[in-house]
Model the fold of this input.
Amino acid sequence: MNNQRNIFLSIHLLSGALAFSTFFLRLILVNWYVLEKTNSSFMVGLLSSIPILLQPFSSPIGGKLADKYSRKFILFVTRILEASCFLFMAVLVNFEISPLISIAILSILLGFSGGIGGPSWRNMLVDILGIKNVSRGNAFTELVNGVVNAAVPALAAILLTIFTVSELYWGLPLISYISSFMILYLVIKMPSQKILNQNNKDSSIKDSFRYAIRNNQIRPILILGCSTLIWGITQPLVPVYCRDVLNLDGAGYSLITSANFVGAIFGSGFLILLGRRLATGKLLSTYILLYSGFTYLFFTSQNAILSGICAFLGNMFITIWIANMFTSLQTIPDERYMGRVMSFFLSMFGLIGVGFIIGGFFGDLIGINLTVLISCLIIVSINVIVLFTSKSYRELKI
Done:
């Protein structure tokens, strides 16, 4: 049984890593393609942000579905839809059929699909490993994601010396379809999870949200989900900064992106070694404060190597933060609310999309350095306020 569980876990991790890599590969390709077409960091932020911006609208629905129906089947359907969207995107971009409009429309579908499938993907770890082992499952998830996503941008940097940005769009559906068919194996072989009683009087999204807000440990974690905003603000600014200040081309930008994921690998290593000891309220805020500091240093450096080191360290800390936030929200809630509580946190990732737009707009208006400084100070302030006002958060231990 343990061998079978290991097989299921391995397939789930690799499939998730491949799907996760398409998110960042799309980000690299859309950022650079739109920058070349428009020379506007605002347009880069706008088009890049669409999937993340729309996920909050579908994530609560995905959470309810994840509690009531087969998570593995929901995940398979959404992955197939995403792969098909990537296929159409590659065709329309390469044949120059209203490419910017096509990217926008298909990104809308990607956003809704990702929001519905996200809670099922994360909580399948509980189906495979059980609650007691889910923290280690999250650590391995971030590790595999880091390895794959460190390789993808580096590979993209090499391929950009051979192919055009438009031609690399064909890689998105290829990776996504492989991920989809790996999930199909789990649909066929893996036992179904325990299904929530659909007649439960507290099973509505509204009741679940009320439960999360009233819980003294869940509430501050959800509030601090807004820290994801800073990551979104910086993303449309990174390619502009790499090009205009660090004097890098598309290949160099991809290598800087790889440094992020190498940092994620190291962060995952700490998670595997130390496990739940890293998941305390005080430490969670420390991680995001360190991430904010290294992010600001990235945008003040004029040396590509130093910026790469800052990207590495920043992403190491935010990887530890994200994994422990997920573990907290998979461990604290009552089992009947787990999918929807997770979806509320995933909805906070929609702030990344807002950040894309804010970062692009203010990057053009007041400059990159001032935009990053203000956003870092805001996130630091929110974390300090929650840390000092919420005793239950300060004393949180998983």
